[in-house]
Task: inverse folding
């Protein structure tokens, strides 16, 4: 398996609470927040509802200029601010927003002069009100972004902890059975035994890799094939595989160890439990910028006694890691289809955080 490097840590702004103010989503949030602020301030200041439309249009224009100019400035200086500590970056961002407010206020006075919107206040009081409101709102917004950043860090830490737990849970019986398979093949078919050793080493290399390293869909599929080759040598004709992959973008990024635990569940709960041969079907489609993978396994009619039920840890770990990486744009669903157990994984590609 190729080492993909620590791409997760390389995402823009991963070490800072300041988001990317150049993104469409952030610009939309800034516009909506500014408009809500304009509505609240206008409702508080107008004397009658008849004055509301004209007053709102003027204040909305002013506040939108402040908000969009501030967001534009933070978009330009954002990469530099993100190299600072969170405290210094937050303070400088706050001061820059106050500077933008001051400049836009000065420009508004030059353009509007003694407009009806400002006739009740003097110039000094107008500057004071604008800077005061901007200071409070900017501080609240930056505080919200910082709290959201701490929450996101906590989610990522929990996701990494779940991944480490998943890495450490390769079932001992699988390792022992694989070693027994290799031992039996060493004399009968040394070349095949070497291939099984290589597949097992790839599996453990992925299991022991750093949680911050990303994988790709192609690597995950290759790891899945290697795992199923090992199980195929052990289970023989009891395991039948059906592959149906159609023009998938194998370069699509994925957290590591996404498919193999799902296939391990299918083998453990669908094939090993059955007294008769079973089938595992792996299908994949790429439609409308979304990758759809499904893993189906036959459900045993007769279950061998003394086998424990699964605790669904692999399913829940995989679901939460997918949603944590793709910002909940991915999904993992479990269902029964035509009498078979199906796990369906859907995630976007290309994906922009």
Result:
């Amino acid at each position: 398996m190729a080492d993909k490097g620590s791409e997760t840590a390389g995402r823009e702004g991963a070490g800072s609470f300041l988001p990317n103010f150049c993104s469409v989503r952030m610009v939309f949030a800034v516009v909506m927040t500014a408009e809500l602020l304009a509505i609240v301030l206008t409702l508080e200041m107008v004397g009658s509802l008849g004055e509301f439309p004209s007053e709102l249009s003027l204040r909305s224009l002013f506040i939108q200029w402040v908000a969009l100019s501030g967001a534009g400035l933070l978009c330009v200086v954002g990469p530099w601010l993100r190299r600072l500590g969170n405290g210094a970056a937050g303070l400088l961002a706050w001061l820059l927003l106050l500077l933008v407010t001051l400049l836009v206020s000065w420009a508004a006075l030059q353009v509007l002069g003694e407009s009806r919107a400002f006739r009740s206040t003097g110039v000094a009081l107008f500057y004071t009100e604008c800077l005061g409101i901007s200071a409070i709102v900017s501080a609240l917004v930056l505080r919200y972004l910082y709290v959201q950043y701490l929450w996101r860090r906590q989610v990522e830490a929990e996701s990494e902890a779940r991944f480490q737990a998943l890495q450490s849970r390769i079932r001992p019986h699988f390792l022992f059975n694989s070693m027994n398979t290799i031992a039996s093949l060493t004399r009968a078919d040394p070349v095949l035994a070497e291939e099984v050793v290589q597949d097992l080493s790839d599996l453990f290399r992925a299991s022991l890799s750093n949680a911050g390293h990303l994988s790709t869909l192609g690597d995950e599929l290759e790891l899945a094939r290697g795992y199923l080759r090992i199980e195929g040598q052990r289970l023989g004709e009891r395991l039948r595989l059906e592959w149906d992959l159609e023009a998938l973008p194998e370069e699509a990024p994925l957290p590591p160890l996404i498919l193999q635990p799902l296939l391990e569940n299918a083998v453990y709960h669908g094939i090993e439990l059955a007294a008769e041969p079973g089938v595992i079907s792996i299908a994949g489609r790429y439609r409308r910028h979304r990758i759809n993978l499904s893993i189906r396994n036959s459900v045993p009619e007769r279950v061998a006694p003394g086998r424990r039920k699964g605790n669904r840890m692999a399913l829940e770990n995989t679901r939460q890691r997918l949603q944590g990486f793709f910002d909940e744009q991915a999904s993992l669903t479990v269902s029964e289809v035509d009498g078979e157990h199906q796990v369906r994984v859907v995630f976007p590609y290309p994906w922009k955080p």
About this structure: Strands lie at 215-216, 239-245, 253-254, 278-287, 290-298, 331-337, 340-348. Residues 1-14 have pLDDT under 50 and may be disordered.
